[in-house]
Amino acid sequence: MLRSLRFWAGAAISVLLIALFLLATDPSEIGDAFGEADYWYMVPAVAVLFVSLWLRCYRWSVLMRPIAAIAPQRLFSYAIIGYMANNLLPARAGEIIRAYVLGERERVSKVGTLGTIAVERLFDGCVLVLMLLVAGAVVGLGDGRLQVIAAASAVLFSVALAGFYWLTFTTERAHGFVGFVLRRLPRSAGERLGPHVESLIDGVRSVHSWRTFLLVAVFSGLAWTVEAGAYAIIGRGFGIEISFAHYVLLLAAANLAIIVPTFFGGTGPFEWAAKLVLVNAGVAGGLAGAYAIVAHAVIFVPTTILGLILLWTFGIPLARLGRMSRVPADEPGAVVP
After folding, report:
1. Closest CA relative to residue 46, chosen from 302, 304, 246
2. Residue 74: CB partners within 8 Å, gap ≥ 6?
3. The model's pTM
4. Residue 89's CB: how many other CB atoms inside 10 A?
5. Beta-carbon-side half-sphere exposure of residue 38 (alpha carbons within 13 Å)
6. Residue 327's pLDDT is what?
7. What is the DSSP string of 17-34?
């Protein structure tokens, strides 16, 4: 992992934005805000966060139906392992890891599962952009940097969504695109992935059904709205008096900021964007900085600890995560003993 370019690129971006975050904040003010916070509010915040994670697991179960019928509660463990790996590894490697672990333990296509996860992330991005624009229209974006995030993410996900539906509009077109990609991969990778094209296309084309599209869109919106509730509860612990629309804006901006390859679950971009929204809402810089750090910890720490526990109960050594973060093949028993 230490030889990986994406590792060092993610680490560099995180370090840069952490430095910008700290340079713009008075450490003594952050310390005062930490001392005055009521941390009992973090308990219900974590509970609300896990409700949002369960809603995401229901959405994932809908996307998985063309591949395998797996209940949301059964998918929960795999999702948490993926979030844990995203927190500890760069470049969203946890998405590949949860596809691998699910494929091994449930004997379903890893490549097809990875396709459903890609659709999840596309819908997450689109919903976050919509929430950013709506909340920004209500409370105002103000700061030019928030406007840049809004404009760049709106363009990125509009193009991604249009491209996705155009490329997968018919099964034939999807086959043609996947074949085009496989021919440009190294021969060994193409040979390994080739037999699993059908499951991949089944996974990504599931949202061409209007019913599936509606369920995925609704549960994406519900999951992120519930998570914004967790941010609002954390705000109460810090005595921050702003509207719920500001927390929706914070949620969207912070999570869109961590799309760039970073390290330790978006540490750096998350705090930078969260503080930016709060300061724009009139919150003092030290208080905004302390809130951003604690809010990220509430998102980061419980999922990481639970994910490590689940990894241990599944009998998967932590050292194997690096090897599992490659694009998965579907040979049974390749990773999980």
Report:
1. 302
2. 106
3. 0.87
4. 24
5. 10
6. 56
7. HHHHHHHTS-HHHHHHHH
Rounded-to-integer distance, Cα 127 and Cα 222, Å? 10
Could you identify the residue written with the tokens 């500890």?
88
* Rg of the chain taking only CA atoms, in angstroms: 20
Alpha carbon dihedral 284, 288, 290, 295, in 10-degree steps, equals 160
pLDDT, residue 331, reads 52
Domain membership flag for residue 58? yes
Q: Sign of the C-alpha dihedral, residues 113, 115, 119, 121?
A: positive
Residue-range definition of the domain harbouring residue 278: 5-324
The answer to whether residue 200 sits within a structural domain is yes
The helix or strand, by DSSP H or E, that contains position 160, with its residue range, turns out to be helix 144-167
Question: CB–CB of 120/63 below 8 Å?
Answer: yes
Rounded to 10 deg, the angle between the 144-167 and 171-183 helix axes is 110
Tokens of 42: 């973090």
Q: How far apart are CA 319 and CA 327, in angstroms?
A: 17
Q: Is residue 54 part of a domain?
A: yes
Please report which helix (H) or strand (E) contains residue 40, including its range: none
Q: Could you list the mean pLDDT of each consecutive 10-residue stretch along the chain, which spans 337 residues?
A: 53 61 71 93 97 97 94 96 87 85 91 92 96 94 86 93 92 86 74 77 88 96 97 97 96 87 67 91 93 94 95 84 63 44
What pLDDT, on a 0 to 100 scale, did the predictor assign at position 42? Answer: 97
Burial label, 244 (beta-carbon count in 10 A; 0-12, 13-18, 19+): middle
pLDDT of residue 87: 86
* Number of domains comprising the chain: 1
337 belongs to a structural domain? no
Instruction: Give yes or no for a contact between 91 and 252, defined as CB atoms under 8 angstroms apart.
Output: no
